[in-house]
Amino acid sequence: MENGQPSDIRLVASNAQNQRLRLYRGLALNKLKPAEVAKVIGDGEQQLRSVLDIRTKEEIGDCIDYPVPEGVSYRILQLDSRSGEFVELRSAKAASESDSAVITFYRVDFYTLTKKLKIFSGLLWNNWRLALSGWTSSERFDTTDGIKMGILKKLANDVAHSKGGAGLYLDWLDPAMDCSGLVALFRLLCNPDIYPAMLHCQYGKDRTGAVCALLQMMDPGMTEDQVVDEYHATEVHIKRLLPEIEAKVKRAGMPVECARCPKELIKEVLDWIKNRYGTVEDYLLQIGLQEAEVAAIKSNLGYVKG
Questions:
Q1: Given 3.90.190.10, 1.10.10.10, 3.40.50.300, 3.40.30.10, which CATH number is that of 10-113+171-300?
Q2: pLDDT tens for residues 168-222?
Q3: Which among 28, 223, 245, 301 is least surrounded, fewest beta carbons within 10 Å?
Q4: Whole-prediction pTM value?
Q5: What residues does 86 pair with on adjacent strands?
């Protein structure tokens, strides 16, 4: 714990004109202790309204419940990739029947099957679905046979190294790889009613780190060096989980460095954005957002020059 707050949870942005418009970042709630979850959720005016869960379906599994404190009502909405709409998986009691407001959990898997198929194109095996699931599920890695494990390890190394250390990040962000889930996530951030909100993936490191870096690059009050330092700080905040992360990275056949948050990695991503698109705003327009939506995100997060 740091300053009375869970060390794994950090503030990304806070609108000085409206303190309710706050965005936090962290890791999956099931990685926190109950007391930490209670602090994350908060109460009264400080209570979260939304949790933006960007783990893959394989990481979430069949669970439709979250480790929230007793007495907190919540609902779960999951992105339907076919319709682009959010479908309700679990309804909470009406807010009037609860002592606290209803928290909405949005599930957005922006690392889609389409991306996986493109990344792994050209390789054929009978049970490809099991192998793809193994990308994020350590249990399923353990059940694959030696031949498929060898293929998976080679694929992981190829993806991690083909575009440098930031290869996986670039595949997540590249419009050629299908960014529909990522667009849905940014469109959620356009809506002022979702705040205060917390964004997380499995460890709050890679997907969360990339998205937060893009958001903070739009903040006129932050320099690129500060954005890079903020990304790198995650390595300290998740130190207690590094052995677990390193084990999964090794099992996937990836370099152990992928378990960490080196400054050079996010610098490569930011350079890719600048060299190809110019600014983060231009990148967001390229993947499908409208100018009004980009402006709404910046307004909500207080990214407006005074």
A1: 3.90.190.10
A2: 788 789 888 788 889 999 999 999 999 999 999 888 888 899 999 999 999 999 9
A3: 223
A4: 0.81
A5: 79
